## 1
Amino acid sequence: MPRRVAVVENILSANDQLAHENRENLDAVGLFAINLMASPGAGKTSLIEKTLPLLASRLSVAVVDGDIATSLDADRAAAAGAQAAIQVNTGGDCHLDAVMLSGALKQLDLGRYDLLIVENVGNLVCPASFALGTHLSVLVASIPEGDDKPHKYPGMYRGVDVLILNKIDLIPYIDFRMDFFNKGVEVLNPGVVTFPLSCPTGEGLEAWVEWLFEKVKAFRRKS
Amino acid sequence: MPRRVAVVENILSANDQLAHENRENLDAVGLFAINLMASPGAGKTSLIEKTLPLLASRLSVAVVDGDIATSLDADRAAAAGAQAAIQVNTGGDCHLDAVMLSGALKQLDLGRYDLLIVENVGNLVCPASFALGTHLSVLVASIPEGDDKPHKYPGMYRGVDVLILNKIDLIPYIDFRMDFFNKGVEVLNPGVVTFPLSCPTGEGLEAWVEWLFEKVKAFRRKS
């Protein structure tokens, strides 16, 4: 089906162009942005809920939440202390793209924030193919998803800058072969920055939040 | 972006046509087929592993496994006693479509089996939009995914015939509001046949397997 492939290429290149514009708009005001991706239910929203209070006294944070439907996630981000929370309903689309982020950015006074967290639609496949213009791609994996996920979703694991392994409090109750998981990650993305943590218990959260804070600081020094 | 919408419509209608042909081929030999869908890690493969031994003495079962990469799932289905296990690697696509199933069916001597289990790619969005020609759509949800999933992925929850709620053994360790989950399901798919169960402990499995066995029997009587 060559016609279909050609059309996908056109969409991607238009997307890349707009992602580039998004990046320029973010850079112009020194706003550091991360793209949070994961399976449905791995804990993206919980991570945002736990991260925001630990940054509240130091950074002003905006959140853009992508979902097929509802504003449940933006509501949770706002309740956790986001200075602004924008919900993007994709209306069926299985990922955010640069057009959608561009629309959300227009609703924000970008210069007021230090950090923008973009929460993508829960999906281990498609979001990896659509650049948004953010500075850092973060994948939230979770113990109950199983240890075979890097092997089965290589595109996602290959492309991210940071890997968070959430729900480590469930390790005692689940047969999760950590060496098999790590082997898959290591082949696809050697040396990727990794934070094992638990949003429910808080274990490991501080290491992630401090690392993120340092990233934002370094970015602002540069810009 | 009207051009893009038009192209998606073309693909879908070609897909529907081929799904119809798949259905005719299945019906011609009296082979009952189910389309198993879920998030990554909800437990589709584990459900197949636990279901097959309970049917082994009564039905001959073939499995078609869709994944971005690897043959891990087909290997597990074969080890659990599938009479045939075909792995379809989608090469990046985030769902199975009727073309891919058609290709897999050609590799099977369809008349030899009573039940075909098609395991779709782990994804709560796209597989819902691509009919395969199977007789029954089954969604595997799981406790650790969280209670908000019907609300956030309505397209998937709306379209399925059966809902399996897996990993109920983890209920004591996870904050899962069963009434919030059920409310979402009830709005989208009132009265959907539901089986709460646990693949790790086996609780609730028999009810699902016996229900499925009766479905296959009823289909074979008719055909």
## 2
Amino acid sequence: MTNLQIIPPGRGTGLVLKRGEQLRVVDPEGGQSGDVMAFSLDGRQRLSNGRTFDYGGKIYLSTGDVLWSDASEPLLTIVADDVGRHDFLYASCSREMFVKEYGLQDHANCTDNLRAGLRDVGVDAGPMQPAFNVFMNVDIDPTGRLILQTPRSRAGDGIVFRAEQDLAIALSACPAILCNGGSKGGPTTTRPLAFQRV
Amino acid sequence: MTNLQIIPPGRGTGLVLKRGEQLRVVDPEGGQSGDVMAFSLDGRQRLSNGRTFDYGGKIYLSTGDVLWSDASEPLLTIVADDVGRHDFLYASCSREMFVKEYGLQDHANCTDNLRAGLRDVGVDAGPMQPAFNVFMNVDIDPTGRLILQTPRSRAGDGIVFRAEQDLAIALSACPAILCNGGSKGGPTTTRPLAFQRV
């Protein structure tokens, strides 16, 4: 893999992806989830889980599925996927979430990472909607209860997105242990994420 | 039921609900879904499906469950529920959705209704996140596919919310046939919604 860029654990980045360009997001070490946020490059449309659930008729997305904006336009299409399980239900971890759920002040978090990444490419995110959480592995039992599992991604696995319009993209290597296999006997630190234009 | 206020089919309204006050949202005729949006009265926090899924650990909410804001504060608690099935996955129907899915131009829609209702009580909604869709009945099959069913609500059934802080609330009687039992043999028009302070 040439031109693979590493996002250190708990950090994020922003980039512009022009219509038709493709971005591969990679889990370099395995078992790590990441957040992908997309806005139209003019900042007027943002990724919408609720709109995507409506138009796709499903909550689990993989190859061939489209991620829609809150203005009902396609933003990204998944064109390849080594993993086949990602989450679009959970809001990105935030400063307040780390205080509330982990008792940690001023912790690195996906919301701030995504916001900063978007700002770096000229987009003011405003109120943040849920991101597409690559590799994050959430089961739903028949009563609707959510069960966080270890991501299924192995080292080097990735997912490829094609831009359906000019986009501002932000990525975050999720710093929340519980989204990355953490629990009794699980890892105690999070891992990097990576990406490359393909 | 005294002081029951009717929202005509396809229309919406806004109201202020102060901390500790309770609001009952009613399906007066049965089989009708509605959208409930909540913002902090200062307009700085909005209802978040992703945050609520995270903190509640479930996608189906009923009595005892809390609806959270995107700033990780409780907005509403469900304190009574005659129906037991509501949706928090689907984005509210919108002008663009009616063009795309029904081929209808300038159709009444929950997004515009909620935005207008919030504006009436002094809140500029900005980008709209998914509302809490009372009575809307969505099943998820084991593969994650979403199946729209007829609402389980019978005439007069309701759900009661308690405000956990001072709130701007907007309600909409959903004008989308597919959310209200529409299909082969189903209804061809939508019905009113109602509400009362309790």
